[in-house]
Structure formats: C-alpha cells, structure tokens
From TrEMBL, chain A:
<dbReference type="InterPro" id="IPR012666">
    <property type="entry name" value="CbtA_put"/>
</dbReference>
<feature type="transmembrane region" description="Helical">
    <location>
        <begin position="210"/>
        <end position="231"/>
    </location>
</feature>
<dbReference type="Pfam" id="PF09490">
    <property type="entry name" value="CbtA"/>
</dbReference>
<feature type="transmembrane region" description="Helical">
    <location>
        <begin position="172"/>
        <end position="190"/>
    </location>
</feature>
<protein>
    <submittedName>
        <fullName>Probable cobalt transporter subunit (CbtA)</fullName>
    </submittedName>
</protein>
<keyword id="KW-1133">Transmembrane helix</keyword>
<keyword id="KW-0472">Membrane</keyword>
<keyword id="KW-0812">Transmembrane</keyword>
<feature type="transmembrane region" description="Helical">
    <location>
        <begin position="68"/>
        <end position="92"/>
    </location>
</feature>
TrEMBL record, chain B:
<keyword id="KW-1133">Transmembrane helix</keyword>
<dbReference type="Pfam" id="PF09489">
    <property type="entry name" value="CbtB"/>
</dbReference>
<keyword id="KW-0472">Membrane</keyword>
<keyword id="KW-0812">Transmembrane</keyword>
<dbReference type="InterPro" id="IPR012667">
    <property type="entry name" value="CbtB_put"/>
</dbReference>
<protein>
    <submittedName>
        <fullName>CbtB domain-containing protein</fullName>
    </submittedName>
</protein>
<feature type="transmembrane region" description="Helical">
    <location>
        <begin position="16"/>
        <end position="36"/>
    </location>
</feature>
Length: 243, 64
C-alpha cells in the first residue's frame, strides 16, 4: 500500500508498528547472541550462591525464557516504541525545522535513543540476574521511570536552547549546555543505588551492561531507519510522478 | 529558517489528538506489559512476567 503525499495518522502508525516489530526482532537477535551468555553466567552464580540449583520448579523453563520469551519481549517492546515514534512523528513533524522527512524521523529516533536509553543507562546501568536488592525494586522502578522522563526533558531543553541561537556553533553550544544542565540536575536529585555484590565478577557485569546497551541501541537505530525508510519512498515516488 | 514547506503529516484536529492519545495509551500498556507487569494486566499470573524475564533485563528495565 503506497503512502499518499500527505498521509493520515493510521498509515503512519501502521508503518511505525511494522518498523518497531522488525527492529524489536533484530534487537532480540543481538540480545540472544550477545546478551544471553551473560544472563546464563549470572544465573549460574545466583544458583551457586543459593546452594545449587533445584528448589521449586520454575514457572517458565530457562530454554524458553532465553528464546521465545526473549524475542516476544523485544518484539512487543519494539511494536510499542514504534507506535509511539509514529505518533510523535505525526504530531511533531510540523515543528521540526527540516525539509526532509527522513531527517525528521531519524532525528526523533536519535532524540529517543539519547533521552530514554543513553541518559538512563549512565545513571542506572542495567543489572543481570543476581544483582539487585528485591527490597528496593519499587524505588528503583520509580527512579528509572523518572530518569526516562528527565532524559526526554533534557533533549527537549537542548532543542529549545539551540533554537534561541542563529550561528551553528552557538546552536550546538547552547543545546549541549541545556542538555547537560538538565541531566546534571536530574542525576544529582535522583537517588543512587549501590547493589552489586562485592564478589560479583566485574567483567561479567560490564559485558552484560554493554550487551544491554547494544540491544537498546540496535532497537532504536533500526526503528528510526526502518520507519524513515517506510515513510519516504512513496513520497519520493509521488514527487517524481508529480514532477 | 525555512518556514513554508509542504506538510507531510495530517492536520492536527481534536479527532486526531483523541485517536493519537488512544493509541499512545495502548502502546504504553503494551510496553508496561513487557517491562513491569506482574500479572495484573496480563491476567496470566506470573507466567508472562517470567516468560519475558530475559528481555526485560536486556532492555535495561530494573527487574528484581
Ligand atoms: Zn530478573
């Protein structure tokens, strides 16, 4: 179904959902190859600490969690994020000062990658199983949601600040400064959690975190490129036919 | 800055905003289902929560 020159919301949404599904499955592939070995290693440490495997039978077998469950999670998450990106694009496109739809779509995805992946990652780096105190899960969840929101505020502040300047280098400087001020305030005010057990292997923690960052980066990059790709060709074709 | 450019998205209307808000709510519910739900939304007990356990960790969500 080709996209009309000025598509409605639903055709854009459909493309966001599709791009999100593809991006989620791609990220799932990366997570399976790069992340699962670290999750398994962390679970082995957890079980050794609790006196060997066993205990009650798990609700879902490990083999299912690390395959079907993993791809289901990343696929559904991708669909949800794709729908949100398409909605943001629909409502914000007119406010983005670029003549290129591709640039607008990629810019929004880059803003999301910065605001809800990079900013949260540096404050609350994700943890593998066996790390984390169950007693603080509610506080950590609330803090995580707060840092996602503040990450988006920081990106928004950067755009507003950049727009107050006319020279390109001043725009870059103002945008960067506003971003860092908001992130700095957020990082200072949000609580800090130190919950990595002293004897947890540092290399395993690092490798897990990098694989998690890679999973999320791949999801947003593929989503941005996929969505841009799905919305632009039809428009370019339409322009060519109209010319 | 170039001001006049051909719009490539639908005109913003009350109907569009309502539809967009509805779908955004649905998408947030779906993300919640993956990231945080412990059975209240899925009505599957802890099954879906456990099933998507590894994805939650690798998507950077605090898990336990
Ligand atoms: Zn977990």
């Amino acid at each position: 179904m080709p996209l009309s020159n000025r598509p409605g919301y639903l055709p854009l949404l459909l493309r966001g959902l599709l791009a999100g599904l593809a991006a989620g499955l791609l990220a799932g592939g990366f997570a399976y190859l790069a992340g699962e070995p670290h999750i398994n290693a962390a679970i082995a440490i957890e079980e050794a600490a609790s006196g060997g495997a066993g205990g009650e039978a798990p609700l879902v077998e490990r083999d299912i969690q690390s395959t079907v469950g993993l791809f289901l999670a990343t696929g559904l998450y991708g669909v949800a994020l794709g729908g949100i990106l398409a909605t943001a694009y629909t409502l914000l496109r007119r406010h983005l000062r670029t003549g290129s739809d591709t640039q607008a779509a990629l810019g929004l995805a880059a803003a999301a990658l910065t605001g809800i992946v990079v900013v949260p990652f540096l404050k609350y780096p994700p943890n593998p199983p066996a790390v984390g105190n169950p007693d603080t899960i509610d506080q950590r969840t609330a803090a995580y949601l707060a840092v996602l929101a503040l990450g988006l505020v920081a990106v928004w502040a950067a755009v507003l600040a950049a727009r107050t300047q006319s020279h390109q280098w001043r725009r870059a400087a103002a945008g960067t400064a506003a971003f860092l001020v908001v992130v700095g305030i957020a990082y200072t005010l949000l609580p800090t959690f130190h919950e990595v057990p002293a004897d947890f292997p540092a290399t395993l923690l690092w490798d897990f975190r990098i694989s998690s960052l890679g999973t999320q980066a791949i999801l947003w990059t593929a989503l941005g490129i996929g969505f841009a790709g799905l919305i632009t060709p039809a428009r370019q074709k339409a322009t060519v036919t109209a010319a | 800055m170039p001001k006049a450019q051909a719009l490539t998205t639908p005109a913003v209307s009350g109907k569009l905003l309502a539809t967009a808000a509805g779908f955004t709510g649905l998408m947030l519910l779906l993300a919640y289902l993956v990231a945080f739900d412990q059975g209240a939304l899925s009505q599957s007990g802890m099954y879906l929560h456990e099933l998507m356990h590894d994805g939650r960790h690798l998507l950077g969500v605090p898990c336990h």
